[in-house]
Write a structure and sequence with these properties.
Number of helices: 7
CATH architecture: Alpha-Beta Complex
Shape: globular
Distance between the termini: 25 Å
CATH class: Alpha Beta
Number of domains: 1
Order of helices and strands: EHEHEHEEHEEEEEEHHEEH
CATH superfamily: Spore Coat Polysaccharide Biosynthesis Protein SpsA, Chain A
Radius of gyration: 19 Å
Number of strands: 13
Low-confidence stretches: 13-18
Largest sheet: 11 strands, mixed
Structural class: alpha/beta
CATH topology: Spore Coat Polysaccharide Biosynthesis Protein SpsA, Chain A
């Protein structure tokens, strides 16, 4: 059987939430959200985990989760650092944050050569998505003239917060389930039986609650890493005037590969409810949600 790896992006600063939200306990046994993602990934058939973290968080991660998890699955760490740049580039003096999700996954360059899934550390995706992404990675053909990737497509209405607006990548999907485009859409909230948001010009728009959205859960072959490597140089060469805030974002990289005809991205739909700690007020809901899932028998009271 193919080896498959789960890559967890956990280097974010948690600016909206405050503090290191990825390490907040939310389960009845003191589990953090990543515990549930890894548990579901192991059940689905993944056999390795790579944590993308900041170097200064390494000890915390090993104490909170890594030392436990490595007893159940192969574990590796890579580091997303602001000054980890290609030859010829230097970090802007006042830059304080890493360069985005594209740079995060690029941190795996040289240590990953098998099919892999990518997720956020602070999102709960549900069991179905892990099974579908894993099955895609196992069964997808490597003998095509285009990269064969996938994305978990969540139902918009299953990803909203009661405590504020959210930003989602709203997907355009053709009749064959192929991703055509992702439109980053901000200010989304539910209003009755629809969702409202703002477009790129700040104008109000309506969205159907059953729209497919991206929650940054992807399935890739290792070919993506070379594309990220090449694209990061191009990105850094073209951000004059925006060096302090510009981000190299994974969805934009994938979107460019689609538009250039280099990649086909299959949308695997999941009806599981997403939840995460976007705002501090979300934590109580997340704790209660995991408690309910344990009571239903979907998870043991103590995972690892």
């Amino acid at each position: 059987m193919k080896k498959t790896t789960l890559v967890i992006m956990a280097a974010g600063l948690g600016s909206r939430y405050g503090g290191i939200k990825q390490l907040e306990p939310v389960g009845p046994g003191g589990e953090i959200i990543m515990d549930y993602s890894i548990y579901d990934a192991i059940e689905a058939g993944f056999n390795k985990v790579i944590f993308i973290i900041r170097k200064d968080l390494e000890q915390d991660f090993k104490e909170v989760i890594g030392d436990r998890i490595e007893k159940h699955i192969e574990v590796e760490y890579v580091f997303q650092e602001i000054d980890n740049l290609p030859d010829g580039f230097t970090k802007p003096e006042d830059r304080t944050k890493p360069w985005g999700t594209g740079q995060a996954v690029l941190s795996c360059f040289g240590v990953l050569d098998e099919p892999f899934a990518v997720i956020n550390a602070d999102d709960y995706y549900g069991k179905e998505a892990f099974v579908k992404v894993h099955d895609f990675l196992i069964n997808s053909s490597e003998n095509t003239d285009k990269y064969d990737f996938c994305m978990a497509g969540f139902v918009l209405g299953n990803t909203l917060s009661d405590n504020g607006t959210v930003t989602r990548g709203v997907c355009k999907v053709n009749n064959d389930g192929i991703l055509m485009d992702i439109v980053e859409t901000s200010g989304i909230e539910q209003k009755g039986d629809i969702a409202v948001a703002k477009d790129s010009k700040g104008e109000a728009i309506e969205l159907e609650l059953n729209s497919a959205v991206s929650m940054n859960m992807w399935g890739f072959t290792s070919d993506l890493l070379q594309e990220l490597n090449t694209g990061f140089v191009e990105f850094l060469s073209n951000i004059q005037g925006n060096e302090l805030k510009a981000e190299y974002l994974l969805p934009e990289v994938v979107g460019n590969l689609i538009k250039s005809g280099k990649a086909v991205v299959h949308v695997v739909r999941t009806n599981d409810k997403w939840f995460g700690v976007t705002y501090k007020e979300d934590k109580e809901m997340v704790v209660n949600s995991f408690k309910a899932l344990v009571e239903k028998g979907m998870y043991p009271a103590k995972l690892f």
